[in-house]
Amino acid sequence: MATKEDYKLDSLPYYDKELENDTKLRDAAAKLIADELANSESRDLSGELGDDISTGFLTSSDLLRQEMERAGKGIQLDSFDASRYALAEPEVENVSEWKKSYNNAVIASEYQQLRSSNLDLLSALGANAWKLSNHTLDADARSLEQQSEQINNKIIDINRLRKSEQTKIGENLNTLEKSWGGLVSNNLELEVATIALEVELAQLAEREQQLRASLQ
C-alpha cells in the first residue's frame, strides 16, 4: 500500500481551480482516487482496541449469562406474580391454611409499608436528587459544548491558516510561472534572432567570397 512518503504532494485545494473548471480533469482525478482505494488494504481496527471486557463480564455470572441467552432468543420475562400478596381466605378450615394466609397478610403489609416509606423518601428527597442530577447533566452538556466549540474553532483557524498559506504560495507560483514563461519567450526570441544573424552572417560571408572572386 502506498504511503504519504511515496508521493510528492503539490496540491493547493484552496487555490487550484482546475478541477472545478475542467470536468475531464475532475473525472480523471476521481478515477485515480477510486483505483487507489480499490487497491488499498482495509484495516481491521477491532484488534487494536484490545480485548472486549464485556464478554468476560457477561460470562462471569450464571444469571447474567442466562438473561443474555433469554434476550437473544426473544423470550419475554415472566409476568409479576402478585398471588403471594393476595389476602384470600383459606379454602380449607385448618391451622396450616390459616397460618399460610396470615403469612401472606404479613408479607403484603410489609410490602405496603416499604412502598409507603419509599414514596415518602421520594417525596422528600426525590425532587432535590432530580434537580442535582439535572444540574450535573447540564454541566456535562455545557462542558461538552465548550469542548466542541473549541475544537470547531481550532478547525476553522487551521483552515484559515491553510487557505492563507496556500493562497500566498499559489500567487507566488503564479508569479514564478509568468516569469518563467517570459524567460522562455525571451529565450525563443533570442534563439530566433541568433539563427537570423547566423543566416545573415553566412550570406555576408558568401557575398564576400563572391566579391573576392570577382576581383581576382
TrEMBL record:
A cellular-component GO term for this protein: precatalytic spliceosome
Highest taxon in the source lineage: Eukaryota
InterPro entries noted in UniProt: SPF27
A GO biological process held by the record: mRNA processing
Subcellular location: Nucleus
Pfam families given in the database record: BCAS2
Coiled coil: 134-164
This protein's UniProt keywords: Coiled coil, mRNA processing, mRNA splicing, Nucleus, Spliceosome
Family: Belongs to the SPF27 family.
Protein name per its UniProtKB record: Breast carcinoma amplified sequence 2
Annotated source species: Wallemia mellicola (strain ATCC MYA-4683 / CBS 633.66) (Wallemia sebi (CBS 633.66))
